[in-house]
Design a protein that fits this description.
The protein has helices spanning about 25-40, 70-75, 85-100, 110-115, 145-150, 170-195, 205-210, 235-240, 255-260, 260-270, 275-285, 295-300, 305-310; strands spanning about 15, 45-50, 80, 100-105, 125-130, 200-205, 225, 290-295, 310-315, 320-325. It is α/β, with parallel strands linked by helices and about 350 residues long.
């Protein structure tokens, strides 16, 4: 039996729609959810607008000139260009949806009406919709990952009140929503596999990021280490730093620490001075505090945990040559799922 045939999702087909003029965070979220399904064996067909998915030219770029972001998000998929602004394109998509198990799309993609009005039973694709906001909010208002993070209350964790907002690194809102959408996709596929009608799944970036915002952070920056702890880990963090000023009643609650964040920073910062990242991490782990080193991309190639889990895998791309890409950070019966080149 071939390798593809024994992958967990190899019996399912999924359509990923990347319509024209869709905001980048929604586009990235949809692509990540579909990538996970594809790397787990699903037959994923990516529908791109004329001119291609804009992520094809998004930085960072590989030495060969191609987008590293696009290569990461689209391993193991097939691709087709359809103009959904014309009847022929919409008719072709409708035919594909009749035979697929699920369709991942971004609101307000033009495919939305087809999915909502079309058959959603065994003969049609279950819709997995990714939107910016809950249904109660105006879906037409402009947004970015920065504004989504602000709406969810995350920016108070990474900035200071008197300074301009500080954006979280990478595409955390888009990727968190993509992972959530894949969870919904998995539930829908499981329902279909059991012969049940799979419900319409709708994920919004704003709601996902509100869920993500479950932990408090001190916000101190050592330059090399992420200073993060949950509310329940504050006593361990206080013991780790060992400064009696942290016993002040003002720091007993999350609200108090936030209100006096400037004083908190001034107390925490000296503890980091003169210590290496490894020393900080070892001392924190000994106290049960999840401080961790901030690695550069080059350092990640040699990171002990990444190497042990085989997180970075080599893939032979038909035109770009050998690429080293992250693979899914999960295993199935001890087996990893390396990315495969998109046909």
């Amino acid at each position: 039996m071939s390798e593809i045939a024994v992958l967990p999702l190899s019996r399912f087909s999924v359509i990923e729609v990347n319509d024209a003029a869709i905001p980048m965070p929604l586009r990235l979220a949809t692509s990540l959810a579909a990538k996970i399904a594809a790397d787990l064996g699903a037959d994923v067909l990516k529908i791109e607008p004329p001119g291609g998915d804009p992520v094809r030219v998004a930085p960072p770029l590989l030495p060969q000139g191609a987008s590293a972001l696009f290569q990461f998000l689209n391993t193991s998929k097939r691709s087709m260009v359809l103009d959904l602004g014309h009847d022929d394109g919409r008719a072709a998509l409708a035919a594909l949806l009749d035979k697929a198990d699920a369709c991942l799309f971004e609101e307000p993609a033009r495919v939305a009406h087809q999915l909502r009005a079309g058959p959603l039973g065994a003969g049609g694709a279950t819709p997995i919709e990714i939107a910016a906001f809950p249904v109660e909010m105006d879906a037409g208002q402009p947004f970015s990952e920065l504004t989504i993070s602000a709406l969810a209350g995350l920016l108070h964790m990474v900035g200071e009140p008197e300074r301009k907002p500080l954006k979280l690194g990478g595409h955390q809102a888009a990727y968190a929503a993509g992972l959530t959408a894949f969870t919904g996709l998995s539930a829908a596929l499981a329902a279909r596999d059991a012969g049940r009608r799979a419900p319409h799944v709708r994920v919004s970036l704003a709601e996902v990021m509100q869920w993500v915002n479950w932990k408090a952070a001190s916000g101190a920056e050592a330059g090399y280490v992420a200073v993060v702890y949950t509310v329940l880990q504050w006593p361990a963090t206080r013991a780790l730093i060992g400064d009696p000023r942290l016993d002040d009643a003002r720091f007993n609650t999350r609200a108090g620490r936030r209100q006096h964040v400037g004083e908190l920073y001034s107390i925490l910062t000296p503890w980091f001075q003169g210590k290496t990242r490894a020393e900080i991490q070892a001392a924190a782990q000994a106290k049960g505090v999840p401080f961790g080193p901030i690695f550069s991309p080059a350092e990640l190639l040699q990171a002990e945990q990444y190497v042990a889990r085989g997180f970075l895998a080599d893939m032979e791309h038909p035109t770009l040559g050998r690429l080293r890409l992250p693979q899914l950070p999960v295993q199935w019966n001890g087996r990893s799922f390396a990315p495969r080149p998109a046909p």
